[in-house]
Amino acid sequence: MKKxxxxxxxxxxxxxxxxxxxxxxxxxxxxxATPGTTSSVAPGPGVLIKTAAHCSSGDISAGGxxxxxxxxxxxxxxxxxxxxxxxxxTGGATDPTYWLGYGGTGGNGTGTYTVQPFxxxxxxxxxxxxxxxxxxxxxxxxxxxxxxxxxxxxAGTRLxxxxxxxxxxxxxxxxxxxxxxxxxxxxxxxxxxxxxxSWTAVALNGGMSGTGNTTSAFAICSGNxxxxxxxxxxxxxTNVAGPTSAxxxxxxxxxxxxxxxxxxxxGASISGSDPTTGSFTVPGSQGDHLDGxxxxxxxxxxxxxxxxxxxxxxxxxxxxMSSPSTDTDVWGLCMS
Length: 336
What we know:
This protein is mainly β. It has one domain. Strands 1, 2, 3, 5, 8, 16, 18 and 19 form an eight-stranded mixed sheet that branches. It is built from no helices and 20 strands.
């Protein structure tokens, strides 16, 4: 992998056997390699800390990132597929094998920050190729403003996973607050729903206005021409209240897939309410952001080396102010 001094690697391997209509997909256990995280000591304000995970076999169906640092000093900025390990995949790209996870230091950057990437590596006897759909839009530009966009899988394909990117242009306060499976209109997929078609990304501006910011959604879909009849993707969703006090966090973890099959991806959000019951709303504070969107165990801890991956976890974090009426949500996609 290029830029070896910067790139940590966390890879989740999911091997899925031939699909038989009406039967659960047989698979090996999902395992994780964890050689370490990327750390940055006092990088300065407005800096992207870049990491990548690589699938040595199979295609990537999804990925995630976990960031840590002093107080509320780092946000998730990008969590997206890549074909080269250094730049986001473009629309129409096929069979990506990398996942990028970027953290941004915003207006801080005076402490030690870490960024840990995760890549879900997918093999399936039926779905032997994947394709990337990208949707981008300008914004948010106003202080406290929010922008969303939705990438839609082509008809006759299955959504496997997705990601989001908030491109920092003229200020340091923009960040990703939502990356989740949805309908083509951006409505968040509800628990136990099946075969969502799209992936939605949401970005929030903090207390600074600015122009030139861009929000992008990435959908990873099965390849064109693949017969997906008999393959079902089932949604796991969990909503928790919070964080509501300043400089605090809330963690949400999905239930296991169980008879719904194998975990192949997941998503996360921090907003003003449960987005599966209505429109996605602005969270309680302009400083709210995501610190985690990653595969995990049932307790929310990142999946360790050689351990099974059965769940997905989201970490929502408030800024320096209290954040009333704020929820953290997480999604997992199970294939059978």
